[in-house]
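Usage

Read records sequentially. Each one opens with the input sequence:
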Amino acid sequence: MRQIGVIGLGKFGTTLAHELTQRGAQVLALDRKGETVEAIKDEVTHAAQLDATDPDALKAVGIQNMDAVVVCIGEEIEDNLLTAILLKKLGLRRIWVRSHGPLQTEILKAIEVDEIINLEEEMGRIVAAGLVSVNVVRHVPLGKNHSLAEIEVPKHLIGKSLREIDPRGKFHLNVVALRRKVPNINDLGEREMEDSIEVVPDPDLPMEEGFRLVVVGTNADIERFSKQ
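and closes with the structure output:
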């Protein structure tokens, strides 16, 4: 079971700690505000109030034993950077840090943290992709030019199979899953439609209205396929 530290329990940090816990990780949640720690202590493995810029305090709670630590201190930008530097000195295996602007991003690159989280930039890309591409339901950037996208099958492709559509050959896209609704009988004996995800779908299955393809490729190829 992975042990992950979350430093800074604002909206992002708190949501992250909750999600990590629900996914089976052991979470060490840290913040300098007592009321914030109090609010989350019963929902994570361990929570503590401390100053993350104090190396002795960090070592006392065992931060150096974590598999990864995410620094997301929101209000004190200098503390965010100093905490990242202290974690580097403590020899943490993986350090992810939320950046609050271009200058901080450059500093984080200079100290060589493992991952820089730019929420505003990423959200801007996601919103732009959703607005520009009519059939794109979800869009997850994988880098500057590549993404994973969930695309509703264009109407003129309904009835055709993936083999006929040939996303890889014609659009350079890899189809990693198919999402669709399938009938199911619930505990009350009632018939309902539930979401189904098929990893590596049958290439000869005819596409139906409401089917969604999860694809990976360049942003340009995803755009081209979604608009065809």
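Summary fields computed downstream for this record:
- Residues 128-227 form a domain with the Alpha-Beta Plaits fold (CATH 3.30.70.1450).
- The first helix runs from residue 11 to 22.
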